[in-house]
Amino acid sequence: xxxxxxxxxxxxxxxxxxxxxxxxxxxxxxxxxxxxxxxxxxxxxxxxxxxxxxxxxxxxxxxxxxxxxxxxxxxxxxxxxxxxxxxxxxxxxxxxxxxxxxxxxxxxxxxxxxxxxxxxxxxxxxxxxxxxxxxxxxxxxxxxxxxxxxxxxxxxxxxxxxxxxxxxxxxxxxxxxxxxxxxxxxxxxxxxxxxxxxxxxxxxxxxxxxxxxxxxxxxxxxxxxxxxxxxxxxxxxxxxxxxxxxxxxxxxxxxxxxxxxxxxxxxxxxxxxxxxxxxxxxxxxxxxxxxxxxxxxxxxxxxxxxx
Amino acid sequence: xxxxxxxxxxxxxxxxxxxxxxxxxxxxxxxxxxxxxxxxxxxxxxxxxxxxxxxxxxxxxxxxxxxxxxxxxxxxxxxxxxxxxxxxxxxxxxxxxxxxxxxxxxxxxxxxxxxxxxxxxxxxxxxxxxxxxxxxxxxxxxxxxxxxxxxxxxxxxxxxxxxxxxxxxxxxxxxxxxxxxxxxxxxxxxxxxxxxxxxxxxxxxxxxxxxxxxxxxxxxxxxxxxxxxxxxxxxxxxxxxxxxxxxxxxxxxxxxxxxxxxxxxxxxxxxxxxxxxxxxxxxxxxxxxxxxxxxxxxxxxxxxxxx
Lengths: 307, 307
Description:
homodimer; 307 residues; alpha/beta; UDP-N-acetylmuramoyl-L-alanine:D-glutamate ligase; 9-stranded mixed β-sheet; 4-stranded mixed β-sheet; 39% helix; 23% strand; globular
């Protein structure tokens, strides 16, 4: 089954301990789509300026991503983010944000887009997320992401979005900020009380905790020897996660667990190089191999100790 | 098989978001021994003052802990630590340290103690750890812990200790400080180059990473709804870990994985109440039940995604 993602397509200027790069293809929807494209067809709803490079358009098309919803604004400038990670790879510091055409982004879905079964509302203004929710028809699953800025400035609107989705992706800091609860398990349960059946707490290098109904799954991250660029790791994780679910075509607990592992796998590749570079030549065989590494990483004999 | 632990026995004054407690039975060797005592016989080498309460002596004996190596110094004062966790349960802030009789601690092992097969050198001055190493005979496994203060002030001595042990327990910050490497996997591999076959990286609420030869195991922590007092969680983890290994009587990779899970289980109980209170009435049945919860938390279908 196919996925519709609504979110940013951007150029990033990046500085990490591994080096500097300029005008790297980025943005939440781009990272999400690329990761998910290994599993299923993705329809990307976004906006770019006329400065968006032909080669990047071709890269996304080459991944099988449907770009009929990617609007190109003549004479407009693509969203441009500059940031660095100098002391802590878990924490980006923003140096500059040029919204460009993204400032007037107003997602309009075609009839075909409205009927996609899996929807991902990437991190955009909650008003725009509501607009998308109003347009979609009988989705099988709607998942969303957000960020501190919207939690701090658009709480009521954000709350309305959360109440209408089935799955929320947040990092542990956002879960705490959103609920005022320090304990992440309490925070996840509170968010579930608002509506979502599934809350996915992203914890960076520590993996993720997936709260699904009464069950909890701890998905580990792959312990990597080198991390080159963590930008977009959360969106890549969500892309692998929903990509797997859409491919599986079911949303039972067992599929959700495998989905979280696929999210970890895709994120582990993505951070190995700048932007989307590591994913350019990635193969299904490599994904399966790392999936297997994660089984090795977590496996232990389940026999009780004392009985 | 039995374990010998050398380390502190203390009284703690604690303040956590859950409340305040004074003169709580604590200390690394106490926490370790109590946790390990659920799995095997433990011999505790330590020192206390004449203020050490009879009831606490009886509690430890009641757990089957051999106290023939616990020296009582007449007119001496037991090591006393005061600390609080106000904003972050992962980070204790020390308010006061009164070493008391611990300042002159000089571990001397009886012939029987010297021949114990499993040894845990809890966090004490590396010179004392070396002294213990010089006394023990043909151990099956020696494991150690340490802390930032010794890494900063006694690096050369600490290095000598590390070179002589088979297993090191450190938290991720200590592993980074010890090696100068920011990436924990790189740090663990560096420590292994110095001698230990196994490096256990403790990550608090995120569980632990166990580097054992070429294999890595990610042991999750139990996601708890409430944490009352994290003091001693690391020593309790080590106690469950080595307790299981000593009980199993073998140190293969499969046993080490189960040992790490037992460490997580014991730590998850310990933090539920102040000091050792939660462990007073803990049963083997409850340990097995939580062990099972951890299997549920980590289980997923291992079938490849694409093949």
